[in-house]
Structure formats: C-alpha cells, structure tokens
Amino acid sequence: MHSLVVFISGSGTNLQALLDAAAAGDLPASVVLVVSNRREAYGLVRAQQAGVPTLYFPLRRFVDAGKTRADYDATLAAAVRPYAPDLIILAGWMHILSPAFLNEFPNMVINLHPALPGQFAGVQAIERAYAAFQRGDVSHSGCVVHQVIPEVDAGPVIAQTVVPIYPHDTLPDFAARMHAAEHKLIVAAVRQWLSGAGGAPANNAPLFTDP
Q1: In sequence order, what are the beta bridge partners of 34?
Q2: At what angle do helices 42-49 and 13-23 cross, to 10 degrees?
Q3: Residue ranges making up the domain that contains 191
Q4: Same domain, yes or no: 97 and 120
Q5: pTM beyond cutoff 0.85
Q6: Can you give the pLDDT at residue 63?
Q7: Structural domains in the chain (count)
Q8: Tens digits of per-residue pLDDT, 103-126?
Q9: Which of 74, 89, 106 finishes a domain?
Q10: Positive or negative, the Cα torsion across 80, 105, 120, 151?
Q11: How many other β-carbons are positioned within 10 Å of the β-carbon of residue 161?
Q12: Residues in CB range of 180: below 8 A, 6 or more apart
C-alpha cells in the first residue's frame, strides 16, 4: 500500500476524490497526511472526518520571523519526511515550492492545474480561460497533472484532459465542468503514477482523456 501526502489551500474537493477512491479500493494507496497553508481550508475538515492527520503550516510565521522562503520549504520538508510519502500531491496548493523542498523529494511531487500544458500558468486559470474563450482566443480548455519543477506549472505531463467551453456557458457552468474533470483526472493520474512508471512519460503524451 502506497502512502500519499496531499497539499491543499482550499475546499479540498480534489482531496475528497482521492480519499473516496482510496476508500473504495480504486487506488492502491492511503492518504497519510493533509497539509494546508490556510487554517480555514475546508479540506482540513475533510481530512479530519476521514481520520487523516493534518498539518497547518502557514508562511506568515516565517515571514514575521524574518526567515526566507527557502527556510519555510526546508522546514516543511522536514515535517513531511516522517510520514514517508511515496507521492506528494499538490491539489489546490497555492504556494510555489522551491528546490529547498523539491530536492528532498526528487520526482515525487505532482500538481493538478486547471489548464492544458503551456496555457494559463499560475493563478485564476479557469477565469482566464473563460475570458479567452469569450474573446475568441481559445475554443476549449482542460486540466493537467504534471511533475513539479521549480518553474510554475511547467513540469513533465503525467495526464491531461480536454474540458469543453460552450457558447451558453456562464463562468460557474464552466468552472463546475472543470472541477468535475479534475476529480476524475487526479485519481487517474495518481493511479497511473503508482502503477509502475513512477514518473511522467518521456514524450509528455497524455495518458487520460475524458472530453
């Protein structure tokens, strides 16, 4: 049985998808720790309801103490290490992890991002994709799970799926469709990772499509 650590910053619906898949036996893994940088993140409640240990780890206390981002990341890595994760999943985590963290878990950190590779890196990707559709710049969007590297949302692709945008869509319509696709994709990508490859395909080919 593999051990998963999940990082969140918000409501934790993708965490819930992983918890449900693990409980149903659809993943050969269990979530052993949930980390949040925000105390109010509802994902912490989801973890507690599932009996999973949680760690609230805010950046502010490091900033207030005059410490660096590398100090934060190194201390976070030290806090996670005792849980011996086989995979660390960023599922709505709103901090960029530096080499001070990533070097402690080489090729073991993956991220879910609500855009296709090379499009809408960073925050508010769903809103920016919807605005681009309204301008006629894109005909669809999607989501991707990729290996985490220091460059934001740019690591090797593990899995991706196209999410359509329809002319009658409101932003909430499109966001709901995106989130539903994310819930499927994160489980499929983790299953793929754990099934043997231990990493992303060299040619970055998508391994999961659910238009």
Answers
A1: 6, 54
A2: 10
A3: 113-211
A4: no
A5: yes
A6: 83
A7: 2
A8: 999 999 999 999 999 899 888 999
A9: 106
A10: positive
A11: 22
A12: none
What's at 139, amino acid-wise?
S
Beta bridge partners of 176: none
**What is the rounded CA–CA span in Å between residue 58 and residue 98?**
15
* 4 contacts 169 by C-beta, under 8 angstroms: no
Report yes or no: 110 and 188 within 8 Å, Cβ to Cβ: no
Residues 79 and 177 in one domain: no
Residues 65 and 141 in one domain: no
Strands (E), the chain: 2-8, 29-36, 54-56, 87-90, 109-113, 140-147, 157-164
Token readout for 47 is 């973890």
Q: Which residues are catalytic?
A: 113
Is 133 found in the same domain as 89?
no
Q: What CA–CA distances, in Å, run from 169 to 124, 165, 190, 208?
A: 17, 7, 30, 24
